[in-house]
Design brief:
By secondary structure, the protein is α/β, with parallel strands linked by helices. It folds into two domains: 5-230, Spore Coat Polysaccharide Biosynthesis Protein SpsA, Chain A, CATH 3.90.550; 235-300. The protein has helices at 18-32, 49-59, 74-84, 104-112, 130-148, 164-169, 180-186, 212-230, 235-263, 273-300; strands spanning 5-11, 36-42, 63-67, 89-92, 118-122, 160-163, 192-196. A seven-stranded mixed sheet has the order 3-2-1-4-6-5-7, sandwiched between helices. The chain starts with a strand and ends in a 16-residue tail after the last helix.
Length: 316
């Protein structure tokens, strides 16, 4: 029977928390009468996580395990989980028990009854280290809100709910799991909401993420912003940049030549640092133009150059 709820759990070395998590999920789903599936994606764990997943799959028919041969990261794990999910509503949560399955019913209701395309959790009260995690997270989310225009307090929260159509319309790769709301908005899903959720102190193990995630996250955000605006028209970016840089250099050289003609032979043109800066600007401008042309050739020969998502078609 087609499930009305899919719960996707990416995991890496979480053997201790998995039994408690699955039992909690099963208790909540059974109480609320959901036809559900729990998709656990083992991202190349080196502990006994996969053995625990196999045991849980035998105990609970709703549990399905998918195992990577090696560690790829959270985004690939979510991509595979999204591809396998069949529920009308898809909920993601971390495997470390810091996300509470008791949030599932309200998240499900907000999607099915309130009509949200995506609902992101907001861990308003956190139990992480204030200096190493909470403060950087607040700064990180403030930058995200400013650059993307999506007013979420905690874009990176692992506890989220989606309409099935959303997760089937986006592609999560690299480290893009941090920006799924951005990917969804760019795919045309505008009703994005937020729910304050409980953040529980970590019960087992330690965090698998370090400071580098903030640097990588900022770079990924720039990538999303660029590919969204210029992915199918890269010359619009490189052309403008190239024209501005080249013309700035050309103008500078022209002014120096005019000064040379006005001042006479005593004016040392090639002795001026501005002369070499201007020449460098002209060369850079030309290179930007060439980059734009090459990018256009790549885009025009890409297999998905005319891939567009269609909401409705009256002829079908």
């Amino acid at each position: 029977m087609h499930p009305n709820l899919s719960i996707v759990v990416p995991l890496f070395n979480e053997e201790e928390s998995l039994p408690e998590l699955v039992e909690w999920i099963e208790r909540v789903c059974t109480t609320n009468g959901y036809r559900h599936e729990v998709i656990m994606v083992d991202d190349g764990s080196t502990d006994r996580s996969w053995e625990v997943v196999l045991q849980l799959a035998q105990r609970f028919p709703a549990v399905r395990g998918i195992r990577f041969q090696r560690n790829y990261g959270k985004s690939p794990a979510l991509y595979v989980g999204f591809k396998a999910a069949e529920g009308d509503v898809v909920i993601t949560m971390d495997a470390d028990l810091q996300d509470s399955p008791d949030e599932i019913p309200e998240l499900y209701r907000m999607i099915m009854e309130d009509g949200y395309d995506l609902v992101s959790g907001w861990k308003k009260v956190r139990y992480d280290n204030a200096i190493t995690k909470n403060l950087p997270s607040k700064l990180y989310n403030a930058v995200n809100r400013s650059l993307t225009g999506i007013k979420l307090h905690d874009m990176n929260c692992g506890l989220k709910a989606y309409k099935r159509k959303v997760i089937k319309s986006i592609e999560v790769y690299g480290e893009m799991h941090r920006f799924i709301p951005v990917l969804a908005r760019n795919a045309g899903f505008r009703k994005i909401g937020e729910k304050v959720v409980q953040h529980r102190a970590r019960k087992y193990g330690s965090s698998k993420f370090g400071w580098e995630r903030f640097i990588n996250g900022f770079l990924d955000l720039l990538t999303i912003q660029y590919t969204t605006r210029f992915g199918k028209k890269p010359m619009h970016f490189f052309g403008v940049l190239g024209a501005f840089t080249f013309l700035t250099g050309l103008l500078s050289v022209t002014m120096l030549v005019i000064d040379k003609l006005r001042m006479g032979p005593d004016f040392g043109l090639t002795n001026k640092p501005a002369f070499y800066i201007a020449l460098t600007s002209m060369v850079l401008g030309t290179l930007f133009f060439l980059s734009g042309f090459l990018a256009e050739l790549i885009v025009r020969n890409a297999a998905d150059r005319n891939h567009y998502m269609i909401e409705e078609d009256t002829d079908k």
